[in-house]
Amino acid sequence: MEAGEGVVRYQAQGGQALLTIDRPKARNALSPEVLRELMAALDRAEAEAAVRVVVLTGAGEKAFCAGGDLGQMGGEGGFLATHEGRRAYGRLLLRLQDVRKPTVARVNGHALAGGLGLVLACDLAVAAGHAELGTPEIDVGLFPMMMMALLQRHVGRKRALEMVLTGERMPAREALALGLLNRVVPAGELDTAVAALAGKLAGKSQAVLALGRRAFFTAEDMPLPAALEYLSSQLSLNVLAEDAAEGVTAFIEKRPPKWNDR
């Protein structure tokens, strides 16, 4: 099933929902329309039972997403309306983590500024070898204020500061070594690598994945004692799940589990 209208294309096939930012001439920049349509597409993917994994990408081969649309910075409706529009980007980052299905960024080209934030908000990320990642906002007199919250959670203090203060781009291989990506492959192998990774996720219990992802993000900012206490409660919930019983039984019986996603 494919929807081609607007600036975000939605295609559901084989258990995967492919969300494509379709503004190649603007390097798939994040306009207000893109933000709204990505939120709607995530809601749709979450609601469709056949979808087990969400894949996010950009149209073309040059850019995954170049970040905010500088041509629309002024906005309409006054300062407060423009500020509220910027907050929509933060809501999208949170939504990518809050959606009940695992997310994979298919980084087909450069992921810069807010575009890098989208990569970091996805659970996993696979990039083409020619892609570059970075936070070049400083070069136009801006600072990567919002996506910086995710960058701080992915890399150490010195490297994060170097990225945001210098604005230098890094090749995909360097981003992989830094922990910003999970895989880097030649451009011709990108779809195969993304499909393989998404297929692994699709083959897991969706109920347990949803419980585990929520626990991961909730515990991330907790002090260690509180995190351990919280995670022990989540483990108690986990072991009561039908799929936990099925998984243990299948292991003992030496057969593949048959998930009911409950």
Automatic annotation (TrEMBL):
CDD domains: crotonase-like. Pfam families: ECH_1. Gene3D superfamilies: 2-enoyl-CoA Hydratase, Chain A, domain 1 (3.90.226.10), Lyase 2-enoyl-coa Hydratase, Chain A, domain 2 (1.10.12.10). It comes from the Bacteria. SUPFAM superfamilies: ClpP/crotonase (SSF52096). PROSITE patterns: ENOYL_COA_HYDRATASE (PS00166). InterPro entries: ClpP/crotonase-like_dom_sf, Enoyl-CoA_hyd/isom_CS, Enoyl-CoA_hydra/iso, Enoyl-CoA_hydra_C, Enoyl-CoA_Hydratase/Isomerase. PANTHER family: ENOYL-COA HYDRATASE, POLYKETIDE BIOSYNTHESIS ENOYL-COA HYDRATASE PKSH-RELATED. Belongs to the enoyl-CoA hydratase/isomerase family. This is Enoyl-CoA hydratase/carnithine racemase. It comes from Archangium gephyra. The lineage of its organism: Bacteria, Pseudomonadati, Myxococcota, Myxococcia, Myxococcales.
